[in-house]
Amino acid sequence: MQDHKISFTGTEDYIASKELQNSVNVAVALGRPLLIKGEPGTGKTMLAQSIADGLGKKLLIWNIKSTTKAKDGLYIYDTVQRLYDSQFGDHDVSDIRHYIKMGRLGEAFLASVQVVLLIDEIDKADLEFPNDLLWELDVMNFNIPETGETVHARHRPIVVITSNAEKELPDAFLRRCIFHYIAFPDAAMMSDIIAVHYPDLEQKLLDEALAAFYWLRGIGSLQKKPSTSELLDWVQALTVGGISPEQIGEELPFLGVLLKKDHDFTTVLQRLHNEGAQAKPASRFPHLR
C-alpha cells in the first residue's frame, strides 16, 4: 500500500471546524477509521462526501440497516442465482466466482486508487456487527471460503463511520477508531453555513431567522429540535415566500418547515401565545441580539 500525504480543510459547501479537520487528517495519517457522532443535522453523513470532494477521491456508501451483517460489506455469494442458472440457464455454474459479488468494503479494497468509504449509522446494526468488522479493518484483507481466495486491499481506504448513539459500541471497536463529536453549530458558524447556500440573503432576514431558530432550539420540551437542514429549508421558504424580517418575529411563518412533531408544534404555538402574539421582534427573540 502507498502512503499519501493528505490534508483535509473542508470544501466550499461544507464548513469544517479546525478540530474536525484535525480529526480527519489524524485518522488518514494513522490509517484508522474515523468515528463521527453528533445530533441529527450536524453534517455527519455529508462529511464523508466533503472528504471525498476535498481530496479528489471516489465515495462509496454502505448504508447500515437493522438486518445488515458484517459479511454483507465484504462479499455476497448469490446462491439463488446459481441455483436458477443450474436449472434453467445455459451458464457454467461450476465456477463459483461468477456468483461472488463484492460488498462496499470489498469494493473499497479492490479499488485501483484510494477511496473514501462511508459506513453510515453503524449503531442500527446488531451488537456484534462492529466486532465482526474489527479484523478486516485492522489487517485490510478477508477470506472468501467458497473460493478459497483472500482479498487484499490495494490501498487502505479512508473509512468514515457515523453513529447516532442508538446503541453503545463495543470498547474494542472504539479503541481502533479516531473519535470526533460534531457539536451543533453556534450562531456564527451557522451564519457561515447559510452564506454558503444563500450568499445573497439579506442580513436582517438572516439575523431574524437565526434568532428565531435558536429560540426554538432553546425550548427544552421539544421532542425533535430543528436541525441545520430544516433551517436551510426554512430560509429558502422565507425567501421564496417574500417574508420580511419583521414578519418572522411577529408570526414565525412556515413553522411546519422547522417542526415535524405534533407535540412540538403545539408547544411552540402555546409558548408564542403565552409570551404575547403581538410582541415586537426585538423582544420575542432577545437572547441573540
Describe this entry's structure for a reader:
This protein is of the alpha/beta class. The chain folds into 2 domains: 18-181, P-loop containing nucleotide triphosphate hydrolases (Rossmann fold, 3-Layer(aba) Sandwich), CATH 3.40.50.300; 187-288, no CATH class. The protein is built from 14 helices and 9 strands. It has helices at residues 18-30, 44-55, 70-74, 79-88, 104-110, 128-139, 171-175, 187-197, 203-217, 228-240, 245-251, 255-258, 262-275, 281-284; strands at 34-37, 59-63, 75-77, 100-102, 116-120, 141-144, 149-152, 158-163, 178-181. Strands 2-5-8-1-9 form a 5-stranded parallel β-sheet, with helices on both faces. It has a two-stranded antiparallel ribbon with strand order 3-4. Helix 8 (187-197) packs across helix 9 (203-217) and helix 9 (203-217) runs parallel beside helix 11 (245-251). The longest helix is centred in the last third of the chain and has 15 residues, at 203-217. It is elongated. It starts with 17 loop residues before the first helix and ends in a 5-residue tail after the last helix. Residues 277-283 have low confidence and may be disordered.
